[in-house]
Write a structure and sequence with these properties.
This protein is mainly α. It is built from six helices and three strands; from the N terminus they run ααβααββαα.
Length: 165
């Protein structure tokens, strides 16, 4: 893989050819995803991608129920239930009856679940910092500006989320 600015002509940004830029970015994203994954796997508790995504979803939406978690992860209820079984057995998640709706079960991160997420976030930040430290400051600034522009363009082209009944 060659990152933009490397020796491979394919990786040089043409400025006029979004498909060539997309290929170069795809290579960079693949390396970043690998860095991200390796950092997560080095945490004290190793989690699958689905388990980590579930914990992150519960961190963003505390006290979700199983249906809400399944929808946020775009998985079926049986899959979400088995995922929660494993996270609960590992001490990362707890299920509690909703205080006002007796038939609803809330999902909450445990203290250990929050620690694991913090550990993964710290390790990922360290790994990313190591790579960014090897870049000249002007390139880091350009990368940040480019990522912000990318996210802005993505937000503008994303369809609105489906309405829930």
């Amino acid at each position: 893989m060659t990152l933009p600015g490397g020796d491979d002509d394919r990786a040089r940004s043409s400025g006029d050819d979004p498909s060539a830029d997309a290929r170069a970015m795809a290579d960079a994203v693949e390396r970043l995803a690998n860095l991200w994954s390796v950092a997560a796997q080095e945490a004290a508790v190793r989690l699958s991608l689905h388990q980590l995504r579930a914990l992150r979803a519960l961190e963003r939406a505390p006290e979700s129920n199983l249906t809400g978690l399944a929808e946020s992860l775009d998985i079926g209820l049986p899959t979400a239930s088995r995922l929660c079984d494993r996270l609960e057995a590992a001490g990362l998640l707890e299920r509690e009856l909703h205080p006002h709706r007796r038939r609803e079960v809330q999902l909450r991160l445990t203290v250990q679940g929050r620690r694991v997420l913090a550990d993964v976030a710290r390790r990922r930040a360290q790994a990313l910092t190591g790579v960014l430290a090897g870049m000249p400051p002007a390139d880091r600034s350009a990368l940040v500006r480019g990522m912000r522009a990318f996210l802005g363009a993505r937000a503008e082209t994303s369809p609105p989320p489906p309405e829930t009944p």
